[in-house]
Task: structure prediction
Amino acid sequence: MRCEVKALPEGSLSREFWLGCLSGLVDTDGCVRLRVNPRGTLHGSVEYTTVSKRLAEQVADLLLRLGVPSLIRERPPRVGGESRFSSAGFEIVNQLPLYQVEVSRATAVVRLGGLLDLRLGYKADRLAELVNRVAHVEPASSEMHGYDKAVALDRVKAVTNVGRKALYGLAVEPSGLIVVNGIITSSSPTPPDLATPR
Result:
């Protein structure tokens, strides 16, 4: 399989599998950044870069299922046919577009830090330091709205049997997530433990 068409497997796999997969992707093709702005405030991010657009979209979708918002940056090749930018202090030169999944909100970084099990010592140490230094940051909005006031967040407190009802599903690409009446849910065949509305 060519690198630009690599993708995660489809189907229902365990939460542990997906967490191990994310950890492996960050260990191999990801980085943990710590930055200090001119005011002396520390910022940081966890990033994963790939030439596969599908894989980047799947990683962002998987992060969202785990309650970690992210964004995808596309870095197209320059006019000369090469894409050049630096990551973790190294210049990257590529003839294909690069897709970078970035988790940078403090609360999202802290949540991700509690999920990943990085094997590379220096990345694990840097992530632990970043989480420790931004853990005091409060969410950008109320808990009922997360980061976006257009999306209401809630917790399921009880389930009541209402009998048999017609159920309609919708499969969408690239994400299996559906927002219905402000509630983030999912369509099959997503893993049930990752599909719980948040």
Q: What stands out?
A: The first helix runs from residue 15 to 29. The radius of gyration is 18 Å.
